[in-house]
Structures are given as structure tokens and as C-alpha cells.
Amino acid sequence: MKKLKNEKELIKKAIAEGVKYGEERGAVVFEPGDSADLKIEYIYRLLVHDKVIPPMPEEQVSQQSMRHRLAIWASHL
Prior knowledge:
This is DUF5062 domain-containing protein. The chain is an all-alpha fold.
């Protein structure tokens, strides 16, 4: 998996947009103390469930791969 040029900024954007998406949909309410890793996993699984992004095979799902997939999603927003 090739790292994106500005992946850190895209991950921040993906978390912000994903939190907004999940809360507007009424699926989740994130607490201020929730970790970025927890948010990334929840946002990834929510977007896969809603068929916004394609799923990865379960054995390939890791924190790094979810971050990368969300960064790609954020780059298209």
C-alpha cells in the first residue's frame, strides 16, 4: 500500500467528516475522550456498512489499513 503524499492531513479530514457523517445519521455520538483509533475503526465500519467505501477482506483490516482507506475516501470529498 503506497502512502499518500499528505496522508496525515487527509486522516484528520476523514475523522472530522466521518464524525459529522455518523452523528448526522444518528448512528453514534462520540465523546471528547474517544481515541483517534476508536473513531477510525468505527467510521471505517460505518462507511463499509452504508456501502460508501468497499470493504477489505477481514484478515487485511488493521489500524494502518483503515487509516489509509479513510485517507483515500477523504481525498475524494
